[in-house]
Amino acid sequence: MKVKNSVIAVENLDESAKFYTEILGLEEVRKFSPRPGLTIAFYKDEGEATIELIEGEEGKKGIYMVGIEVDDMDAEIAKLKNKGVVLTRGPFGEPGGPKIAFLDGPDGVEIELIEP
Questions:
Q1: Are 29 and 50 in contact (CB under 8 A)?
Q2: What are the start-end ranges of the E strands in 45-109?
Q3: Domains in the chain, please, with CATH?
Q4: How far apart are CA 104 and CA 108, in angstroms?
Q5: Is the pLDDT of residue 1 over 70?
Q6: N or C: which end of the chain has fewer CB within 10 A?
Q7: What percent of the chain has pLDDT over 70?
Q8: Partners of residue 98 on adjacent β-strands
């Protein structure tokens, strides 16, 4: 089983999109409005999985965490700190296991960075 996407209901798509593109470096791959008042945009990096942001979905609110795999935790943290990001926890991990770190994203979503 592979994770294909994480869906996040957002209040302001443009503001959230800035975080995922400018801070995390994801690329917007598709954006559309299936009906008036509803906009959906997909973002991805090197893998197949996408993050789907939805604005205007009544009765839906957020997701609490998105896990993002990174090749080099130290390099990724350095890039994020240069952009003003402060980690909320980590990095930490057990010897021989994955290294993880956390930061806060927009709309109350916690971002988990994972180095396998």
A1: yes
A2: 50-55, 65-69, 87-92, 99-104
A3: 5-115 (3.10.180.10)
A4: 7
A5: no
A6: N
A7: 98
A8: none
**Phi-psi domain of 90 (left: phi exceeds 0; alpha: psi -120 through 50; beta: other):** left
Q: What is the identity of the amino acid at 4?
A: K
How much is the pLDDT for 77? 96
CA distances from 114 to 24, 35, 37, 56 (A): 13, 36, 35, 30
Each residue of 15-72: pLDDT tens digit?
999 999 999 999 999 999 999 999 999 999 988 899 999 999 888 888 888 999 999 9
Position 58 scores a pLDDT of: 83
Rounded Cα gap, residues 69 and 29, in angstroms: 19
